[in-house]
Amino acid sequence: MSQLGPVALDAMGGDHAPQATVAGAVAAVREGFPVILVGDEARLRPLIPAGVDLPVHHVAQAVAMDESHPVAAVRAAAIPSVTATMRLVKEGRACAAVSCGHTGAAMAAGLLVLGRLPGVERPAITMVVPRTDGGRLVVLDLGANVDCRPTHLVQFAVMGHAFAHAVLGMAMPRIALLSNGEEPGKGEERVREAGALLAELDLPFIGNIEPTAAFRGGCDVLVCDGFVGNIMLKTVEATAEVVTHIIREELLVHPSAKAGAWLLRPALRRVRERTDYASQGGALLLGVGGVVVVGHGRSDETAVRSALRYAARCASDDLVARIEAALRGLRVAP
Amino acid sequence: MSQLGPVALDAMGGDHAPQATVAGAVAAVREGFPVILVGDEARLRPLIPAGVDLPVHHVAQAVAMDESHPVAAVRAAAIPSVTATMRLVKEGRACAAVSCGHTGAAMAAGLLVLGRLPGVERPAITMVVPRTDGGRLVVLDLGANVDCRPTHLVQFAVMGHAFAHAVLGMAMPRIALLSNGEEPGKGEERVREAGALLAELDLPFIGNIEPTAAFRGGCDVLVCDGFVGNIMLKTVEATAEVVTHIIREELLVHPSAKAGAWLLRPALRRVRERTDYASQGGALLLGVGGVVVVGHGRSDETAVRSALRYAARCASDDLVARIEAALRGLRVAP
User: Fold this and answer.
1) Do A1-120+287-317 and A122-278 show the same overall fold?
2) Which residues of B touch A260 (CB under 8 A)?
């Protein structure tokens, strides 16, 4: 897929940057995914092994809070690396952008530089999470937007549907609204109004759904306000922590179960991998004029590599054009 | 605590009623907690063992949907058993009410018969859940109210605080607002406004909190809108299911871990007990003029007995008077 151009990586963003970002980029390049690093060349170059084709787009660091020569620093400093990363996509020099830095900054830079797609009032943070039936669940919005209006939820539904179809290859992804009950009269006002709007559209909308049914496979695209979605996501992480805590505690209390403790270690690691969604390779910012993957701040080399591959795949699946087309359809339909 | 009078139990409410309700009541009576059953005497009497002092307050069943003699049925039928249960509290013939029937019906009957305490616009469903630090977390509202206004959240905070103090014996329960970030600027509009209001009151309010921090022990009273709280609660249940599913799957896939499978069974049962909050004995409906415990529809004998003991304890701790006093303080404070 090199005809698409490389994925631009904000090499300075993330708790373990630039070591983890460069290492993840090197791994991606070795797998055949071209990458361009964005950041301070003097710091990045020494981390790139000889013989690896990994170009660097140089931008100086932002001015530090304790900078003692602010004027000189401002003259030297260019735009932040995350903004420069988005610009490479805007200018067609990269097919997608990845940042594991500050999520809010990545969202702001993506929106500022790439703009919103026609028909999108608010871009949405979108993730794919595993279901107990072995399927995958697309969830949006997970925190980009609070105080959503019903029309925002409708736009999320259209974008999530297009993504599930184009990137995940689902023939007819079933859309549902996250709610506290399945009946149409259930839910907060925003959900009830969004349900009425979605029922009018030519989409496989199946109504309200509760978390348990959604995780079991009751729908493929789960739509919610960003406040509720973010709390749901963090509750999943918190509960996984509580449950593994209880299991460890129980195994220590009951001597007969102690033997199971070490046998269980791989299983508990797998729980962490499958429920700590944030470290899995990132979330998509759907609704901006380019592919933007926002990785978790904790991302290690593996997570960075996953994020880069994910971004390249979304670009090669023509995600943005497909979402744009779906949104065009939406505006005509009602 | 028999000077308080018995706890009134809606013996007809619940998936396993009246067998489970009567069995739970018998167990409670044998432990010294007086109970009065409310329901169809002809069906209840045969279930009560000889020598157990368990009075029955007779009410005919509601008219069935397929009733062929509606007029006669209406003449014969009295009020629904759940309403009759609340009436016993209102009339001072019982110290508290318990129902494991339809949650919405129990809430409606509680509100209708017992009324709201002065200063309460909306009663709140309140639960106590375990934290990983061994402490307990009071959470409200868990589904009684959607589309809450900021002042409703403030009232929930005051009621939750009074409950944690009076019933759980916490010296200074720390109150927090459930949010998608801890900074005061985070959260949906309702949360930001409630935070500003709570900061003005003479309460140990510590600000916003995320689910992970709350479950780890970052606060004692967690306040949220009923829509968000209900989804959080159901996400906990769903995640616990997903996690135990993953663990079972892993134990089957890896031969070396298979031996751990049966060793782990008690631990997984304990996870279910500690995360399936709904079956633990019930939720309190705080803010009505009496102690009302709403048990889960699935309640078995043990859950019914727990709910009855919980209700008796709340009554003997003078919960309603204490919440009323706390609310009086609230109206004066700002």
Assistant:
1) yes
2) 259-260, 263-264, 267
Q: Which residue has the tokens 């949405």?
A: A124
Q: Output the CA–CA distances (angstroms, integers) from residue A317 to A1, A41, A305, A322, B315, in the order listed.
A: 10, 31, 18, 9, 62
Q: Does domain A122-278 have CATH number 3.40.718.10?
A: yes
List beta partners, residue B76. none
- Shortest distance between the Cα of B83 and any Cα of chain A, in A, equals 23
User: Between A and B, how many residue pairs show a Cβ–Cβ distance under 8 A?
Assistant: 181
**Does residue A212 sit in helix, strand or coil?**
helix
pLDDT attached to residue B255:
60
The interface predicted TM-score (ipTM) is 0.85
Q: What integer is the mean pLDDT of B217-244?
A: 92
Q: What is the mean pLDDT of residues B279-291?
A: 87
pLDDT exceeds 80 at position B142 = yes
What is the average pLDDT value for chain B, to the nearest integer? 87
Sheet holding B175-178, edge to edge: B56-58, B35-39, B7-10, B96-99, B291-294, B283-286, B124-130, B136-140, B221-223, B175-178, B205-209
Measured distance CA(A30)–CA(B84) in Å, rounded: 73
- CA of B237 vs chain A CAs: smallest distance (Å): 7
pLDDT of residue B247: 77
CATH code for the part of the protein at B122-277: 3.40.718.10
pLDDT at B332: 39
Residue appearing with tokens 């069974």 = B265
pLDDT at B243: 83
Enclosing H/E stretch for B213: helix B211-213
Contacts of A180 in chain B (CB under 8 A): 143, 146, 226-227, 230-231, 234
Cα B8 to the center of its chain, rounded Å: 16
The C-alpha atoms of residue A307 and residue A99 are separated, in whole angstroms, by 9
Candidates 3.10.620.30, 2.60.120.920, 3.20.20.150, 3.40.718.10; correct CATH number of B1-120+287-317?
Answer: 3.40.718.10
Chain B residue with minimum CA distance to A269:
B247
What are the sequence ranges of the domains in chain B? 1-120+287-317, 122-277
User: Mean of the pLDDT values across residues B239-257?
Assistant: 74
Question: CA-CA distance, B2 to B313, in Å (whole number)?
Answer: 11
How far, rounded to the nearest angstrom, does the alpha carbon of residue A178 sit from its chain's CA centroid?
A: 19
Residues near B274 by beta carbon (within 8 Å), at least 6 away in sequence: A242, A246, B130
Residues of chain A with pLDDT under 70: 1-3, 61-78, 254-263, 275-280, 330-334
A-chain residues near B237 (CB < 8 A): 211-212
The pLDDT assigned to B200 comes to 93
Q: Is A97 exposed, middle or buried (0-12, 13-18, 19+ CB in 10 A)?
A: buried
